[in-house]
Amino acid sequence: MKSLKYLVIVAIAIAAVISCSPDDDDPGIVIRDAREVFEEDLDSLTKFLSTHTWNSDELDDIDDGDDFEIEFSLIEDGDDSTPLIDQVETRTLTRDDIDYTYYILKAREGDGENSATFADSALVSYSGKLLDLTQFDNSINSLWFDLPSTIDGFAVALEEFKEADSSEPQDDGTINFNGSGIGAVFMPSGIAYFNGTPTGIPAYSPIIFTFKVRRVKTTDHDGDGIFSKFEDLNDDRDVRTGDIDNTDEDFILNNQGRRIGQRFNYLDEDDDNDGIPTRDENPDPNGDGNPEDAQDSDNDGIPDYLDDATDVTTS
């Protein structure tokens, strides 16, 4: 069994290939136009949703809060089942100037109080399928995911579901959750693996994930006192948008001193690289993790923790 975390590592590696020169591309994978691929994916997704349904009647037969497995099936001739296209909610996520359409199916929103954001962590059980319903990945046991490290379509889908409202340890060491958010996301390859080919997923494949949200955790990855969701400086639901989300434009270095990636603000303990840790520049006076009240000593409109020209006296 593979985990989504493993697949994401593969996808990140493929993304690095895309950014290289043509001579560096994998000769076995043709780099296609992303907008053209999206149009094809959207057509495939629409056809799937128009010809398939899900086992909603079984959900009606279980006790409130019990677990439930979403299953999809082809609508046969004479079957009056409601197609998925009439039950899903349409969403849009912009990446690289393309407004990607994806679809959310909500079997149960979730009975708990909290939802994750794209920048948080979530305890999830899940299954991944191609549009022919071939399963390429699943985890019956729940796994913690750092959502910024997963594919975009998965991370933003979980935002719409709440965690379970209760849990109970079992004698076999497992945990039963009650009231988990249960749903599915249908996404084009542009917010999935695009030209990446993790095991079981052909390049340019639109995919489906079904999932159950067990627990969520609001995350401050770098411990600087600012929740990571507030270090998305251009509000594009991505904490890794080039220099926009890397105020001081610094890098993560390996043991040989080579650059291996940008040190985005959500991973940077000193966001403006002025030698003073962000936490010591009063980024969140009221302590709620949101820097909207951050100190701005020189009143220039740039908070001290993002302003390398501001001298801050620490005590």
From TrEMBL:
Q: Where is this region: Disordered?
A: 264-315
Q: What is this protein called?
A: Peptidylprolyl isomerase
- Please name the InterPro entries in this protein's record: PPIase_dom_sf
Q: Does the keyword Isomerase apply?
A: yes
Q: What keywords are annotated for this sequence in UniProt?
A: Isomerase
List all Acidic residues biased stretches: 290-315
Cell membrane listed as a keyword? no
User: Mind telling me which residue stretches traverse the membrane in this protein?
Assistant: none
State any single GO MF term: peptidyl-prolyl cis-trans isomerase activity
